[in-house]
Amino acid sequence: MREIGYAVRGFLTVRRDSLRLPLTGSLTVRADPGSGAFTGDLVLRPSTVSRAFCGVTAFSAAVQIAPDSPVVGVADQEGRTFATVTVNAILADIRVAGRTLISGDSCRTATPAVVPLRSRDDFGLERGGRLAGRYHRPPFTGCGWITAFLNVLVAGPGNAVVIDLIPLPS
Questions:
Q1: What domain range is 139 assigned to?
Q2: How far is it, in rounded angstroms, from Cα 59 to Cα 4?
Q3: Burial annotation 12-45 (CB, 10 A radius, 16+ → b, else e)
Q4: Do 63 and 45 touch, CB atoms closer than 8 A?
């Protein structure tokens, strides 16, 4: 097995909106050079998402995307890579018009989201590249009186993720 480390940079989008959540972190994969199969440990840093109107912040939320399983995948001979990871989303410190609606980590997806990722033909485990996919975001739970409102806005299909894997020096 060969171990490869990457810096992760990218974003995910929230359905029905152009709202983008930045993704930064790291991925360490253990790859079998013969078969192209790999598993990896994804670590993402917390991010903040917000929306302003007329220069005033209307809402903001701290978001943690937490992997629920290792990344598993395969890189084929044609330079395509297919991978899957399951993740939970945790919303904390939700503020609307400066007022705190949620604090703590109880507001989270009820079940993990399964996120399929695929590269273009120019990806390589050694050189990295871009992976992208679309996934269904499960409903949220534990968000108090705003749970139903959040689920109308952000749960469901049509979410996208794009990540660039940048190899780290070995």
A1: 2-167
A2: 38
A3: bbbbeeeeebebebbbbbebeeeebebbbebebe
A4: no
Long-range CB pairs of 79-82 (<8 Å, 24+ gap) are 79/119, 79/121, 79/122, 79/123, 79/124, 80/118, 80/119, 80/120, 80/121, 80/123, 81/117, 81/118, 81/119, 81/123, 81/125, 81/129, 81/131, 82/116, 82/117, 82/118, 82/119
For 82-111, what is each residue's pLDDT tens digit?
999 999 999 988 888 888 888 888 999 999
The string of pLDDT tens digits covering residues 4-56 is 999 999 999 887 666 789 999 999 999 998 898 999 999 999 998 877 777 77
pTM of structure: 0.89
pLDDT in tens, 13-25: 887 666 789 999 9
Number of domains present in the structure of the chain: 1
